[in-house]
Predict the 3D structure of the following.
Amino acid sequence: MISVPPFFTECQALVNAELDRLVAGDGTPVSRSMAYTVRAPSKRVRPVLTLLATELCGGAPARAVPAAAVMELVHASSLILDDLPSMDDAPLRRGRKANHLEFGEAIAILAAFGLLNLAYGTLVRAYDAALAARLSSLVAEAIGTDGLIGGQAVDLLATDQQISFETLERIHRGKTGALFSAAATSGAIIAGAPGDAVGSLAAYAKNLGLAFQIIDDLLDVEGDPAETGKAVREDAKKTTFVSFSGVDGARQLALELCQTADRALEPFGRRADRLRDLSKFVAGRSW
Ligand code: GRG
């Protein structure tokens, strides 16, 4: 098992403190449901990407903490929706009962919407109007029909069907790559990075996101629920990177995508080593 780099733990702590504050709530069922998924154990990969991108582009990570937390709020919202009976019908998430099994389906859906509203509201409160508008637009695009929603729709409609490799890739570039990309580019934009640096980070994150998903598929086959916090063998009815390429082929593909991701970091030289370490973590993760 690959160890978690120390900077990763520091970033997680910064984000967890912000998230705790954001989902403190008022004790109502919907606010408890929001906090339940947000506070559950998570790798916080997307917010870590935001903080590392800001740091790489010369910004103060502290300034990116609200945006980093927003990436996690959006991700948590998508996890609640993904687990619903009408979607993946998953019983376990982040080592706990799925949100709808704890709070009921109606409250879980409201909590998912609540997290999205909290996300946009956080951007508006934390940044000046122009920056908040730019970040909100990035987030909206990542969630939209070319991002999480689009990828999820194609994925759901493809269940029980044979799909092409291109369709599989499109699904996961939407479901996973889009938010990875928004997380990294948001960090760069907060630091005032020029367009070419933002573009390089977007290319890095898109490829890392797809590699991350392929490892997710591998963990569904080979993983231990005690480590991943999710039920395994849930993808049996779906076409996955493993069903397409086999275990070894999928692992090779994930490694190649991490290498492609790292090549996008070349303009930054050694300053991007933390992101290279993040790629290593993604390629070797067992949770
Ligand atoms: C309106 C936000 C919104 C979404 C609607 C439901 C949906 C469309 C999309 C589902 C997207 C989804 C859940 C993709 C799976 C991505 C993935 C690899 C999840 C696991 O992420 P990890 O391993 O989880 O980072 P932790 O728990 O560590 O955060």
Observations:
- The pocket of geranylgeranyl diphosphate is lined by residues 42-43, 45, 74-75, 77-79, 81-82, 87, 94, 143, 148-149, 152, 175-176, 212-213, 216 (CB under 6 Å).
- The two ends are 9 Å apart (CA to CA).
- The first strand starts at residue 92 and ends at 93.
